[in-house]
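ok trying this again, last paste got cut off
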Amino acid sequence: MEKYKVGPIVLFIVISTVNSQSSTTEVSKLEKFYYDKCLKYSGGAEAFDKLRTDVYEMYEFLLYTFKSLPNNRKTFCSDHRSNLKVRIQEVSKDLRPCLPANEKFFAEFIEESFKEFLHFLCHDNGEYTRRFFSADGSQCRTQIENSNTNDLENCLNRIFSPSHSYITKKEMCDDVVVARKCFAKLIEIHCPSSLNFKQLNEIFFDFVGKPCGSCLHYISGLIMLACLLVNVLTHKIY
């Protein structure tokens, strides 16, 4: 089964690495997939056009706002954070017409988990963001970037395999357990002495896992946030 069955959140993952040619190909495939999906469930192409526009505009604004990190955390948290909340609410709203009845919950999960991602960045005056960009954090990120391995990709490839043509909440929660372990493994391999990054990985998934409520695990949509954290914060603002 194609990995695009995992749901609309994959669009964010692909867009977060849109600079590469392979990612451009993936974006094209995903756009076709969700065009068909929106056409099927909404009855027209307007829903897809709105979703595509809002996703790209949000992504561009996200890149712009992340340039204020880490030095201008106050500006990000006091000004940009509220704007990003409005944007993710709009994207969540856009998703609903493109989802079958048994996947409607997916849009709300994406919205709530992204808001928790922003909370993670701004918690305690941006303390976790400061730690991410600390000397220790910068060293770990550099080691990961220079590793020239596919460790993370190979690990995450185990995630995109739903057992049905639709996504269940349990599958989403199970998937992100794997994602959490994948990032932990990556840090252990390339930054074994970085207690800071190991702690940040756990704290990050604790935050963005909150929308799963009573589930024992976390939600697959949060993989998007993890990918944004790695790809945008480490590659896009330097």
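PB: full thing came through this time. The two ends are 37 Å apart (CA to CA).
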